[in-house]
Amino acid sequence: MTQPLASGKSARFDLNEIAKSFPPSADTLLLDTYLTNEDAASSRVFRVYRPTPPHYHATCDEYLYVLSGRGTFWMETAENGGTFGPGQLLFFRRGVVHALPDIIEGPVVFLSVDTPRRDPRDIIFVSPADGTPESFIRDKSR
Is residue 60 assigned to a domain? Predict the structure, then answer.
């Protein structure tokens, strides 16, 4: 999947191969694979298995590039929702509530870049009954 270059300061990632490696089902809402994990930014590929309830991240801005799938997504308020599909980029700053209420066509896979680095536990649900960081996302290698 990862093909580091000789310098050790760069790498190549086959996003399609990574996306194909996700299992067909998961216990958590999402499974992810970290590509980079630097203080300034982290990048991940993740697959969404079920609709995600309203939540936000306290420490980072998030850029989501849609690799595959279609669904609905909203940022700030549910009234600000719309559909997404391959090739689209969704962006929101830290603290912006967002949700993916509907999966129209799967698998839904995103490339995510978080600035600065997002701690995997930085997931705050609007309604605490909707979940915890552990029920939300898991690194697929675990």
Answer: yes
Rounded mean pLDDT of 123-139? Answer: 83
pLDDT band, residue 120 (cuts 50/70/90): confident
Q: Over the stretch 51-98, which tens digit does the pLDDT of each residue have?
A: 999 999 999 999 999 999 999 999 999 999 999 999 999 999 999 999
Number of structural domains (the chain) is 1
- Classify residue 76 as left (phi > 0), alpha (psi -120 to 50) or beta: left
**58 contacts 118 by C-beta, under 8 angstroms:** no
Give the Cα separation of 111 and 55 in Å (integer): 18
Residue 99, domain member (yes or no): yes
The one-letter amino acid code at 17 reads E
- Residue 135 within a domain: no
The CA distance from 136 to 27, in Å, is 9
